[in-house]
From TrEMBL:
InterPro entries: Barrel_Baseplate_J-like, Baseplate_assembly_J_pred, Baseplate_J_M, Phage_Baseplate_Hub. This is Baseplate J/gp47 family protein. Residues 203-274 form the Baseplate J-like central domain. It holds the Pfam family Baseplate_J. Residues 108-182 form the Baseplate protein J-like barrel domain.
């Protein structure tokens, strides 16, 4: 989308406003207002207050536009298009309940059984009733965090192990999958992009834009989507999330969302996949100016590399360009020359994203200008 210039709803130049006040005073009084007159102070105060008010009017007017609206206003802009803010989701996992010795009877574990993380921050609750069969020593049940948000993601295996609900015979409980799927309330930039894509959803022909809109709306962890059609009637949807590769839970959520009859054209066969990560490394030798501070340069390099890694991980199909890396390093204050040894240009396909896994940038010496 073309970046439009900022709209100018109202005059805000203090000099122009002050001149208007002076002209109005002179017209009403019939006198020429001199800079040293006491009335000029009152005119300046009035012009200043009007300037501040006009600035507030400008900002308020801008908030009615999609590109400038804050989150609360975006919700109102999206409402006529049927777009609402995605609320926080709870993370999920699988809990395994075990006994020391096999029982000689079936033992039922009701849905709603609570188990706490070992750090005491979150409680997970089973979402299904399961039965430990006679002669078996364990049974597994799906569970969901009672607190929505992303903070409960990425609990490693065995980290949810404090049984809160009293259960006879059960000796241990632990999660057998890493917790995933939790997400915070949708942020403004994400909602803004979905509102911008919203007109596509009214298509009933299964357009690329429509599938993209619906995939972004299925889960707030999804930040980019690639749509391909390898053959007639087949639609492949590739997801990129805030954490990179989406979890199985997110893939399932988006698959179900896109498979709904109200979303998917009858003749389309939709498949949802994780986007493909393409790993690469940067290796370079740099020369510094004689007066350059090497420690400052190294610190800036680390910052630039982190920013570059993040920028690549936020967009599918973003190519790795050798000249861009050289330009980025050359822009660092104190760097005289960059010799990039790797990588060469990397063509990233539309369903892929580039992941900078390592960088080795050596200061090879100093050079006169």
């Amino acid at each position: 989308m073309t970046k439009l210039p900022e709209p100018n709803f109202i005059e805000r130049d203090p000099d122009v406003i002050t001149k208007e006040w002076i002209a109005a005073y002179e017209e009403k009084s019939g006198k020429v207002l001199q800079p040293a007159q006491i009335e000029r102070l009152m005119v300046d105060v009035g012009a200043y207050r009007e300037t501040v008010l006009r600035m507030k009017i400008q900002e308020t007017a801008k908030q009615n536009l999609l590109s400038y609206a804050p989150l609360d206003i975006l919700e109102h802009i999206g409402e006529p298009l049927g777009v609402s803010k995605l609320l926080a989701n709870c993370s999920v996992t699988v809990l395994k309940f075990s006994v020391d010795e096999p029982l000689d009877f079936d033992f039922k574990i009701e849905a709603g059984c609570e188990v706490e993380t070992k750090d005491g921050l979150f409680i997970f609750q089973t979402t299904e009733t399961v039965t430990l069969k006679a002669g078996e020593i364990s049974v597994s049940a799906a569970a969901i965090c009672e607190t929505p948000g992303s903070a409960s993601n990425n609990y490693t295996l065995g980290s949810i192990n404090n049984l809160i609900t009293p259960l006879s015979y059960i000796s241990t409980v632990e999660n057998t999958t890493i917790t995933s799927g939790g997400a915070d309330d949708e942020k403004a930039d994400s909602l803004r992009e979905r509102i911008r894509q919203a007109p596509e959803k009214f298509s009933n022909a299964g357009s690329r834009g429509a599938y993209r809109y619906h995939a972004l709306s299925a889960h707030q962890s999804v930040i980019d989507v690639a749509i391909t059609s390898p053959s007639a009637g087949v639609v492949n949807v590739y997801l990129l999330t805030k954490d990179g590769i989406p979890s199985d839970e997110i893939l399932k959520t988006v698959q179900n969302y896109l498979s709904d009859d109200k979303t998917r054209p009858l003749t389309d066969y939709v498949q949802v996949f994780a986007s493909e990560k393409v790993e690469f490394s940067i290796k370079a030798n740099i020369l510094l100016y004689m007066d350059a501070d090497s420690q400052s340069v190294i610190k800036t390099i680390d910052s630039k590399m982190k920013e570059y890694k993040v920028s690549l991980s936020e967009k599918l199909g973003k190519n790795v360009i050798k000249t861009q890396i050289i330009s980025m390093l050359n822009s660092i204050y104190g760097v005289f020359k960059v010799e990039l040894k790797m990588p060469e240009d990397i063509d990233i396909k539309e369903q892929q994203w580039a992941d900078l896994v390592n960088y080795d940038i050596t200061i090879g010496g100093y050079a006169d200008e």
